[in-house]
Amino acid sequence: MVCCVVTTVVAAVVVLILTVKFIYHYQSGRCTSKTRLVGKTAIVTGASAGIGKETARDLAQRGARVILACRNVEKAERVAEDIKKTTGNTDVVVREVDTSDLTSVRKFAEDILRTETALHILVNNAGMSGMKKRKLTADGLEVTMATNHFGHFLLTNMLLDVTANSVHPGAVYTEIMWKGETNLIKSIFALLVWLMGKDEKLGAQTSIYLAVSEEVNNVTGKYYVDCKDTKVSAAAKDAGLAKKLWEASEQLVKLRPEERHY
Ligand SMILES: NC(=O)c1ccc[n+]([C@@H]2O[C@H](COP(=O)([O-])OP(=O)(O)OC[C@H]3O[C@@H](n4cnc5c(N)ncnc54)[C@H](OP(=O)(O)O)[C@@H]3O)[C@@H](O)[C@H]2O)c1
Questions:
Q1: Which of 51, 210, 224 to mutate to test the pocket of ligand 1 (most atoms within 8 A of CB)?
Q2: Is 21 domain-assigned?
Q3: Which residue range(s) make up the domain with 43?
Q4: Scanning 51, 85, 155, 208, which has its CA 20 to 30 A from the CA of 60?
Q5: Is residue 17 in some structural domain?
Q6: Structurally, how many domains does the chain consist of?
Q7: Is position 29 within any domain?
Q8: How does the average pLDDT of the chain come out, rounded?
Q9: Which CATH number does the domain housing residue 103 bear?
């Protein structure tokens, strides 16, 4: 009797997991653009793993010159070799940058401005998840904000006069689930994402869509989920708050007038 109940519960849980996974994957956005990128140059930060790696692979597949902007050069070189092998595009290079370190970001951006003739696509993808304890970088910035926001804020200012949009990739099973400090809740979340979440290729679709689709060529200041323009929270629509964040970011990264390219 007990055995029968256990079997029924296990079967019900498996069916539930498979159903959620099927629905989540079925309704996930996919980039269907056939755009070729021959003659274009793209930078993907954090391309040594996960969503960034698959975004870089797709852009290389379309013929772009792809710069993998990564902190771990050795790891990134292995990814570059893999991308070259799987796409047949040999114009895939690695450049070192630590997005949590403003000196490193400045050095990287200056090197790009000096050596590249043009830059068409910048995918600000590098990121980490929250730390349990507050940790400061050499610049005195909180490390998660420095990695995910301030470094990319500076980089974008220095490199692009561009349209710019933001992305939520969904729940994607990548290395990020196990990086940094782990605890029981984080581990359970990682297990659920492993069971039901997107894989890296599916997680990269919205970044790829914004990088290549003609229909978003002139779109800027939007937030995309599953390749769709999506509503943002009231806080994100608050122009006063946005201005404050922009000005605080300019101050905290000590943005110089010559570093503004917009
Ligand atoms: N996975 C999800 O469910 C999810 C959900 C929402 C948002 N995101 C965002 O999606 C982006 C990609 O995440 P992922 O899931 O693909 O994670 P991932 O597999 O851990 O990849 C993160 C990438 O960022 C790089 N990186 C981290 N800190 C860096 C630093 N200081 N300087 C330079 N590169 C750094 C990592 O380099 P190493 O290889 O050297 O570690 C790696 O290449 C992140 O911005 C993340 O916040 C992910």
A1: 51
A2: no
A3: 37-257
A4: 155
A5: no
A6: 1
A7: no
A8: 95
A9: 3.40.50.720
In tens, the pLDDT along 248-261 reads 999 999 999 988 87
The tokens describing 63, both together, are 């013929």
Separation of alpha carbons 180 and 161, rounded Å = 34
Per-position b or e across 243-257, b if 16+ CB within 10 A of its CB: eeeeeebbebbebee
**Distance of CA 12 from the midpoint of ligand 1 (Å):** 34
Q: How far is the CA of 175 from the centre of ligand 1 (A)?
A: 8
pLDDT at 131 over 90: no
How much is the pLDDT for 262? 66
Listed residue (156, 160, 122, 120) closest to 40, CA to CA: 120
Atom 32 of ligand 1, nearest CA residue: 98
Quick check: is 101 in a domain?
Answer: yes
Residue 50's identity, in one-letter code, is G
What sections of the chain are H helices per DSSP?
A: 2-26, 50-61, 73-87, 102-115, 143-145, 151-159, 184-196, 200-203, 205-212, 234-237, 239-252
| Lowest mean per-residue pLDDT among 77-86, 130-139, 194-203 | 130-139
Cα separation, 225 vs 247, whole angstroms: 27
Nearest protein Cα to ligand 1, atom 25: 46
pLDDT in tens, 17-59: 999 999 999 999 999 999 999 999 999 999 999 999 999 999 9
Ligand 1 atom having least distance to the Cα of 193: 3
Residue nearest to atom 2 of ligand 1 (CA): 172
* Neighbour order of strands in the sheet with 121-123: 92-96, 65-70, 41-45, 121-123
- How many other C-beta atoms lie within 10 A of the C-beta of residue 73? 15
> What is the CA(111)–ligand 1 centre distance, in A?
23
